[in-house]
Amino acid sequence: MKLWIDNLDGRGSRDYTAFVEAESAKVVRKLNAPTEFRVCLVGGRVSFAIPVVSARVMFTRENGHNLFTGYVAETPAEQYRGAGERGAEIRYELVALSDVMLLDRKSGALCPAFVGRTAGGGFRQLTQDMLPGQFDLSGVDEGDTIPFISVDPAKKWTTTAAEIALLGRCSYRDDAGQLFLTPLGQHTYSLSESDAYFSPDNLQLRSTGRIVNDLTVLGRLEPAAHVKDYFVGDAYGTTTFYLSQIPFARRNEVPLFNRTILDEEYGTLDPTHWRVVDPRSAVSVSAGQLQIAGGTGVDGQTLVEFVEKIELGGMTVLEHGDFAFSGGSNGVIGGLYDGLISMGACVAGFLITPSGGNCNIRAMVNGVATGNQVATQAGHHYVFTTRLYPTEAYRLQQVYHSSERVSGDARGGAAVASDVRVLLEVHDIDPANPASQVADATVLYDGVIANAPEFCEYALINAADMHCSVAFTYLFLAVDAVVRSAPKDENWKTRRVGARLDGAECRISSTPTLQFYPQHVPAADETIEVTYRSRRRAMARVVNSESIAELKNGADDGVRAAVRNIATPAARTTADCETAALALLDDAGQGWAGEYQAWSEMLPGGAEDIFPGDGLAVGLGSRDVSFLAIVREVEIGVCDLGEEQLLYVLRFVDAGDPGLAIEFEGAGAGLTKALTPVDVSQVGSSFLADLTGAEVVALTSTTVTVDAGWTPTVGSGVEMRYTDSGWGMSNSRNLIGRFTVRTFSLPRYARGQNYFVRRYDNSVPAKYSRNATALHVDYPL
Q1: Residue 146 CB neighbours (<10 A)
Q2: 179 touches 127 (CB < 8 A)
Q3: Does 174 lie in the same domain as 47?
Q4: How far is residue 630's CA from residue 76's CA, in Å, rounded to a whole number?
Q5: How far is the C-alpha of 388 from the C-alpha of 149, rounded, in Å?
Q6: 27-71 pLDDT per residue, tens
Q7: Are 143 and 206 within one domain?
Q8: 582 and 647 together in one domain
């Protein structure tokens, strides 16, 4: 074996093998962590140079196989050993970490959260953002699509990489500048008592019981009832209205550093934010602005594209920026695209067309120009903003893995259908008129895109021939609420929610209240509708009735219960909690952990080397034990350098160990109510679709007329209650009534009153919507 160290002094790698103290070399590999190499060197000769911090270290076998490659992590500790034949001998304790140490020594990447990426895609992007081109990433597999991967600039690369690996049920490792990310157990070796070199004395096993058949899973705060609050303006200029429930806010359920998707001021065109396609060199940055001067004349060929997708879930504001046009232009600004970037695939954006030396601006929706147009004026500049109001907060369910549902075949991950209300507005600013700075923007489009895509590509610029400059781009998660109003006998319009400086007309506070700014006070008899989601703790109870029946014996009812609080992957909804429970119940049974020792030439399955994440097919016929194990740690002790005698210690758990794909929290939200159990065979089919379209369509002093937004079929109907509880045919405590028509009238007894609605079917027992729709009216009698 050879130990090579390059002290970065211009002399290249030198052979330190002769200085290695006997049996002191050890390599420790842990699952999804940097590999550590420790060795003691004895110096004292003239040729000995003390290894320096960050020196390159390679520990290799004679056949060229690397046991370790990396860098010295700290200044070696010294110990005086006395005088030898060649002078004083000093013992140096060297500690080195594998190649990813380079990534950990960089400041965290200031990149946006990864949205709708595969585990491998996120892993590659994280690495490229830290050290572009430094590592060979050809050994990174894709894995499953992960809805949202948080990127915290305060975390080291190894911490975020380990989180990505956990989300994908994968393992990562490095070797000589190459990174690998592969599914757990992709390489599996036999550890069987029938193998020629198997040593029963070197195997230690212990059982770990995981028998659970009644599992409660706790998650985060989730969006619950679909709430619509109705108010009316009065002659007194009332600006504050009290909401019936506390709104769910997606922006509060993501880490603080990911609530702002992008805040770009163009000192440079940051490659961690933007992907540029520019065959004619039309794109540049100067004087703190992004400059576009020309294009290829062809749609989709000159692009400034955001590196991440935009999830059409939760309220999102895209302030594309402050644009100044220097000539007639043709292209799309701030486009959201379903797939490849082209005008035909533009879900929403601003179409710019030339008009002499100026431009015309129109809304583009689903590939078609629509609505009125705004003509630009020389010397003016224009702020373009897109506001997205989806009916669903999350557009992709979380993914969970088990020994049965491995990487590439995860549970969950289903798309969530949603309509999206889109508001496209442009603010015309005349530098010669200060009042234009605070004037209202012109709304070019205010409408609903039905069944919108879950994720869209976002291109700030799609230039066929564009001549403009851009001062900033700001994308962020906004308050999850839609405020609309209709003056008496006029059409509805969307009121912008947020900060006044961002052009908003009102704001929603945590009190919870809706407050209009003085410039936008509702008129007398103006109807106001506030649409949002209430919130509750996500939780689910899933039972395996078949297992309970098998374990039932006399006074033992067979129930084996447990409660788990999920940290990672985040259980964002009750549906996610159910999916996590299914994954955990996949592996509810006999578990194993163990350790096996073997010389390098006698490794299980004839392996040349074994790494954390590799599988071991354990087969002990004499003990009636057979299971697939996953190696969590490999410790390699060097007993003889010259003879290459290496002693491997393999520490492993069975493939069903939940810690391989799920991280739990010891504390957190407790149970707030008794949960109705759902059998494993019924998960995913226990609830009907929510009545998201239910609304109040008419009011009198004594009645409220409701449109359920859905026409009942034979045997089904709509159930109305005064509170969100007691649902079911057997409970009439707070029941208003059951209706088999789409539109119906309800009694009204007070100025402020709540109505809750769910649909039901003719099943026995009847199935209901998972979430109620809450209709709150606050109208004078």
Answers
A1: 25
A2: yes
A3: no
A4: 34
A5: 21
A6: 999 999 999 999 999 987 667 899 999 999 999 998 889 999 999
A7: no
A8: no
Among the listed residues 39, 8, 5, the one whose alpha carbon sits nearest the alpha carbon of residue 22: 39
Alpha-helical (H) ranges within 503-565 are 545-551
Q: Phi/psi of residue 450, each to 5°?
A: -75, 140
CA distance 569 to 578: 13
Whichever domain contains 20, its CATH number is 2.30.300.10
- Structure confidence by residue, pLDDT tens digits, 551-584: 999 999 999 999 999 999 999 999 999 999 999 9
Can you give the length of the chain in residues?
781
Q: Where are the beta strands (DSSP E) in 392-452?
A: 399-400, 411-412, 420-429, 442-449
Query: Which residues lie closer than 8 Å to 185 by C-beta, 6 or more apart?
Result: 406, 613, 614, 615, 628, 630, 655
Averaged confidence pLDDT in the chain: 94
C-alpha span between 739 and 479 (Å, rounded): 34
Token output for 74: 């700290």
Q: How many CB atoms lie within 10 A of CB 714?
A: 7
360-380 confidence digits (pLDDT tens): 999 999 999 999 999 999 999
User: Which residue, of 164, 183, 202, is where some domain finishes?
Assistant: 183
Tens of pLDDT, residue by residue over 668-725, are: 556 767 788 999 999 999 999 999 999 999 998 899 999 999 999 999 999 999 999 9
Which pairing describes strands 513-516 and 615-620: parallel, antiparallel, or unpaired?
Answer: unpaired
392 and 539 assigned to the same domain: no
Q: How many structural domains comprise the chain?
A: 6
**SS3 sequence, 111-135?**
CCCEEEEEHHHHHHHHHHHHCCCCC
Do the Cβ atoms of 551 and 558 come closer than 8 Å? yes
Cross-strand pairs, 648: 598, 636
DSSP-derived secondary structure for 1-40: -EEEEE-SSSS--EE-GGGBPTT--EEEEETTS--EEEEE
What CATH number does the domain containing 199 carry?
A: 2.40.30
Q: Can you give the CATH number for the domain in which 112 is found?
A: 3.55.50.10
Contact 79, 28 (CB under 8 A): no
Report the candidate in 681, 675, 708, 712 with the shortest Cα–Cα distance to residue 693: 708
**pLDDT score recorded for residue 557:** 95
In this predicted model, which residue has the larger pLDDT, 149 or 781? 149
> What is the average per-residue pLDDT within 517-540?
95
Give the separation between CA 583 and CA 167, rounded to whole angstroms. 13
Return the SS3 of 764: coil
Question: Mean of the pLDDT values across residues 340-358?
Answer: 96
Instruction: For residues 705 and 741, give the distance between their C-alpha atoms in angstroms, rounded to a whole number.
Output: 12
Q: Extract the runs of DSSP E, i.e. beta strands, from 450-544.
A: 455-470, 472-477, 481-486, 493-495, 506-509, 513-516, 527-543
DSSP 660: G
| Same domain membership, residue 343 and residue 302 | yes
The pLDDT of residue 86 is above 70: no
Both 519 and 444 in one domain: the answer is: no
For residue 241, the enclosing domain spans: 211-249+483-588+655-685
Which residues are bridge partners to 552 per DSSP? none
Compute the half-sphere exposure of residue 129: CA atoms within 13 Å on the CB side of its CA: 28
d(CA 214, CA 680): 10
Which residues are 178's β-sheet partners?
136, 175
Last residue of one domain, picked from the residues 98, 120, 147: 98
Residue 649, number of CB atoms within 10 A of its CB: 15
Residue pair 445/424 in contact by the 8 Å Cβ criterion: yes
Q: Say whether both 457 and 498 belong to one domain.
A: no
Give CA angle at 306 (396, 313), nearest 5°: 25
323 and 413 share one domain: yes
- The tokens describing 153, both together, are 């600039």
d(CA 434, CA 417): 44
Question: Domain with 716 in it: what CATH number?
Answer: 2.60.40.10
